[in-house]
Every structure is written in C-alpha cells, then in structure tokens.
Write a structure and sequence with these properties.
There is one protein chain. By secondary structure, this protein is mostly helical. The protein starts with 12 loop residues before the first helix and ends in a 12-residue tail after the last helix. The radius of gyration is 17 Å and the shape is flat. Helix 2 runs antiparallel to helix 3 and helix 3 crosses helix 4.
C-alpha cells in the first residue's frame, strides 16, 4: 500500500500543485502495472480496453495505447477497441512536435 500523503497547510498553490502532480503520477504508475497485469493474465477485452484507454488518456503514451487497442481488436474481438483504434487513425493523434505516431 502506498504511503499516505500529508499536505503542508502553509504551502503555496504552486507547491500544492507540484505535490499533487507527484502523487497523481505515482497513482497512475501503480495503476498501469496493475491493469497491464490484469490484461496479460486474464486476456479479457474489457480489462485490456481500459488499460489502453488509461495509457492514452491519462499517461499520454498514445502509440502504446493504440497498439493495445489494435491487439484487443484483432485478438479479443473487442468492438470498443476497434472503434477507438479506427478513430485514432482517422482523426490522427498529433503529438506536440507535430508527428502522428500511429501511422
């Protein structure tokens, strides 16, 4: 279990935002490990779809998420993952530097 976090009441907004960002990153990192394990272990479309969604929406690892959507679509016949993978291809998933990593 993760250590509890105690926020300093005298901290500035910037310091609180920084503390929150660190806690949020730790949470998403641990959630990614757990969700990937669930996907790899149980090989269920729902778990794997949610893992791909987390990769893209919360962590910003678009290419990995797209590849997981493709795998879900082809191997687990997940309609939701097929739909999301196609949307990424059709809309593009431009990165800040202008590249589109899923093509």
């Amino acid at each position: 279990m993760a250590d509890s976090v105690v926020l300093d009441k005298s901290a500035t907004q910037e310091e609180l935002a920084e503390q929150f960002s660190k806690v949020q990153k730790q949470y998403y990192d641990s959630l990614l490990v757990e969700m990937k394990d669930d996907c790899d272990t149980y090989k269920k479309a729902t778990e794997c779809h949610e893992y791909a969604k987390l990769l893209i929406e919360k962590v910003g690892r678009i290419k990995e998420g797209f590849e997981q959507y493709k795998k879900n679509c082809l191997e687990y016949e997940s309609g939701a993952s097929c739909h999301n993978a196609a949307n990424l291809l059709l809309k593009g998933a431009a990165m800040p530097d202008g590249t589109v990593p899923v093509y």
